[in-house]
Fold this protein.
Amino acid sequence: MGTTRLDPMTHTARRMFELLEPICLVTFLADECNEELAALGHRTYWDGYFASRAAPLGRVPAHVVHAAFYNFAEGEAARHIPSAWETIPPEASVAARERGSAASLRRILGNELAGSPGLVRAADLTTKAATSAPVEGRVMYAGMRTLEVPSDPVARLWHSATMLREHRGDGHIAALVGARIGGTQAHVLSALEQGIHPPESFGRIHHLPKERLAAVMDGLRERGLIDTDGHFTDAGRATKQRIEDLTDELAAPPYDALSPAELEELITELEPVTATLVAAGLQ
């Protein structure tokens, strides 16, 4: 992290993010979830994405989804919400996302690891953490908390990891808002952190109108966060680090529910799961 001021639980939150994120990413990168959503009748990947991720909030209008998701450009949510729900109930999209994600995990992990006592224990401890955090100010997390926790261990691990991902995401948005970094600006800073240059070529924003991207870049330059060539300044890099540090700090509360021994056990049981997913490229 490049800092020594973070407390142990904040470091724990970062480590748990590293371990749990690959479990969540099967939803977006493996085939099974998209196939389940397409079978329902969702026309495109993004129809299924917006519908299934926003569904725990209920049939809210597009501007609410836009606010909750935060980092999509103006109008993107409205291309999918509420039309994606006109013939497909939100509950069906939620169930399809769970089925597809669990199926991806089982395929990638294989029968031995997916059926192991270690995975069951990891699912139990992840669920204990994921159901223990306060919901105040956590819109996406609060929505996920309304859903029933699956009984199947693989599905339960995915569900609880996704709850924690949304909890962290809500905190990340709070950190971005506090730093006066908009959603598209956040993508620019993320691209630079990943070494992508020019940052406008980043896959999450490259499709936006050039005038829109130019305005975003100009705004970051005016604040001294990027230079004339579109690279980080020292101030920009420091701002990005403060956002990440605060995100970790805000993501720590769920893990207060676990004892030090349970945390150590959870990390130990998750490591082979995460390593297998990463080695497979989540495909």
The mean pLDDT is 94. The CA atoms of residues 200 and 206 lie 5 Å apart.
